[in-house]
Amino acid sequence: MSFPWAKEYQPASPLTKWVDERLPLPRLIYNALGAGYPVPRNLNYFWNFGILAGLCLVLQIVTGVVMAMHYAANTAVAFDTVEMTVRDVNWGWMMRYAHANGASAFFVVIYLHIFRGFYYGSYKAPREMVWLLGVVIFLLMMATAFMGYVLPWGQMSFWGAKVITGLFGAIPFVGEPLQQWLLGGFAPDNAALNRFFSLHYLLPFVIAGVVILHIWALHIPGSSNPTGVEVKTESDTVPFYPYFVAKDGWAVGLFAVLFSIMLFYFPNQLGHPDNYIPANPMSTPAHIVPEWYFWPFYAILRAFTSDFFFISAKLMGVMAMFGAILVWFFLPWLDKSPVRSSNYRPLYRKFFWFGLVPTMLVLFYCGGAPAAEPYVMLSQLAALYYFAHFLIVIPIVSAIEKPLPLPYSITESVLGNDEGAQLRPGHGATEAVHADAAVNPPLQGA
Amino acid sequence: MARILSILVGLFFTLALAWSFANGAYTQITQPPAVTAEHEFHLAPKEVHFASDGPFGKFDKQQLQRGFQIYKEVCSACHSLSHVAFRDLSQLGYTEGQVKAIAAGFQVPGVDPNTGEANMRPGMPTDYFPKPFANDIAARAANNNAIPPDLSLMTKARHDGPAYVYSLLTGFRSQEGFRNAKGQEILKEFPDAKTPNGLHFNPYFANLNLAMAPPLTSTGQVEYGPGNPKPTVDQMAKDVSAFLIWTAEPKLEKRKQTGLAVVLFLIFATVLGYMAYRNVWANQKH
Predict the structure, then answer these.
(1) Is the residue at A23 inside a domain?
(2) N or C: which end of chain A has fewer CB within 10 A?
């Protein structure tokens, strides 16, 4: 892809020319992260989280590979090998804390990245495929993180595995055999630990593969932007290098500072103390809670406390927990509004800030709280709005809403005027153009 | 059509949740959950400070040595310390000779070189602290059916761990007449909550009744060498808590020192990065 004004890669030396003719890898990089990729000039800091997510994936793979060198996936020694890594391996403590907190950092970044997508309508045409692949990555991340948390074989590892794999038991007819097949036994034990380790090592590379597809799909239409108006002319964009390399560069620095403060000064803040107790199948912890990044979905799972007609509460909870994420796959088709950015959607924006955002915060809070009142009732109300938001509010609001006038172009929104604006229909320099024509111009280039 | 379908699915989930909510609210009103003695009388750990607290915190080695002495003379009778080796004690400021002597003072499982039979031999610096009981069954049999937990990670395995250990050790008291902040007396409010025989009342323990008898009971129970503070129960509890901070996180000092250098460097690099960003974008409106 690219816009017609994108710079073309010019090999600087005979050697790079030789390489370019045989394997145009430098050209690929140039077009993806170099001067060959024109990017809307008006991106705000929410657009930094894609790069940060990529960085987190690399961090997790590097620290994870080192951790795996010292780990043994055997229930008799798994806990001890992790402790040994922390105590006796050079810089092992840092690797361990970086890996454990790196998972949290990865989810912080991903949640902000998804938030950006929700608010600015990044999931809409022509970027549906980018969005779908992103949801796939999120699901893979959750599976990877869950299995990774089991590996140290502490109390929360064991009981978390037991609760989550137990969910499959709620599926009618095939549930119990399926659960036993997944675990390789009746309860989490050596067989489960071994396969979790194997998959925990495999899935990050699957994620890396889907990330490549995600970026590939992104580069077909190019990045979205805070106005949601598509790129029209060269003045709407700046080349990725040097502009966004510089902007991402300092954002990476800021992220590294915050992450290091977490890693070196509060390394156990986000973990549960019970996971420093070796797994004991005979002793159930007072409160079984997953890691914080699962809390909203855990709250949804526990919100279903009554059977609904012939469906058991447990099955409802399981369907809702998975459904809460699966519904994201349908988002591009549930939200039919032609306007992407919520900045220009006065009605939807209210539902977003006063509905979805507080709902997510309540679900986060309740998922980590004990399964008692008032937390259960709170999460019931929040989960109720969560499903209503995606399945009822979004389709209706997108049909009845009258969006605000959009700027004619990115350049106009940045500079207040646009030379290219003379080309636009009607010629009137300040009158704004509505919805469809502005948002969905024919794709430039190919 | 798709819109109607999505609204129907939405109604399915929202109605199921409304139904759960209504049932929960009804139960809450008709049968409010009973208040428990644990809920009313459990105390959060006391406020206590250690030399290792804070971003510049360092271990007080003298205190760690005192704490080790408490572990050795009191705790080790029942509690293992399985992740700590004698060689690690050099970090407390003991010389190589002292570490060897300490190790030799413990009997560890070995093999008779002549007969190949299992025996006990004096410990060496490479050995780990031996377990006081051969297995869990032996531990239960000797401790009124409770297993004394391993202490190596104790201060990380409880919320607010160091303060918890200190509070627990100094928190034993008579249940008779014990009142909470509201002025309620436990045995008057909850006559059923009377501590069973063989257990010991301690409001800092999650369910208020602990199998462990008060381990630190009187000043001078352990004799500290010259130049050390008076071994009161409070001082001994603090010292052993400090020691258990070290056993749970022996790399704490190194972590904080490394962190300082890393964070300062990254702040410097980030400021440079920010200036580069401002410079690159100087002539571009965005």
Answers:
(1) no
(2) C
- Domain holding B234, by residue range, is 37-84+129-250
A–B interface: beta-carbon pairs under 8 A: 166
- Inter-chain residue contact A390 with B10, CB threshold 8 Å: yes
**Residue B10 and residue A391: Cβ atoms within 8 Å?**
yes
- We report the CATH number of the domain holding residue B157 as 1.10.760.10
- Helix H or strand E segment including B118: strand B118-122
Question: What are the per-10-residue average pLDDT scores of chain A (446 residues)?
Answer: 87 95 94 93 96 98 98 97 97 97 98 98 96 98 97 97 92 92 94 97 98 96 95 94 96 98 96 96 93 96 93 95 97 95 96 97 95 92 97 96 94 76 48 45 43
Interchain pair B248, A276: CB under 8 A: yes
Alpha carbon of B3: minimum distance to chain A alpha carbons (Å):
6
- Domain assignment present for residue A408? The answer is no
Contacts of A80 in chain B (CB under 8 A): 83
Active site residue A247: yes
pLDDT of residue A431: 41
Q: Name the burial class of residue B47, with classes exposed (0-12), middle (13-18) and buried (19+) by CB atoms within 10 angstroms of its CB.
A: exposed
pLDDT of the residue at A416: 77
Q: Which of A275, A387, A413 is the best substitution to test chain B (most B C-beta atoms within 10 A)? A: A387
Active site residue A223: yes
B170 shares its domain with B257: no
User: Are residues B284 and A247, on separate chains, in Cβ contact within 8 Å?
Assistant: no
Q: A42 contacts in B (CB within 8 Å)?
A: 286
**pLDDT tens-place string over residues B137-191:** 999 999 988 999 999 999 999 999 999 999 999 999 999 889 898 888 999 899 8
| CATH code for the domain in which residue A83 is found | 1.20.810.10
Is B222 in CB contact (< 8 Å) with chain A? no
Residue B170 sits in the same domain as residue B271: no
Given an 8 Å threshold on Cβ–Cβ distance, is B259 in contact with A390?
no
Q: Is A20 a residue of the active site?
A: no
Neighbour tally for B170: CB within 10 Å: 21
Q: CA nearest A155 in B: which residue?
A: B157
B282 shares its domain with B272: yes
The answer to whether A261 contacts B274, with C-beta atoms less than 8 Å apart, is no
**Nearest CA-CA partner of A56 in A216, A342, A259, A356:** A259
B-chain residues within 8 Å CB-CB of A227?
Answer: none
Record the tokens describing residue A109, joined without a space: 């970044």
Global pTM value:
0.94
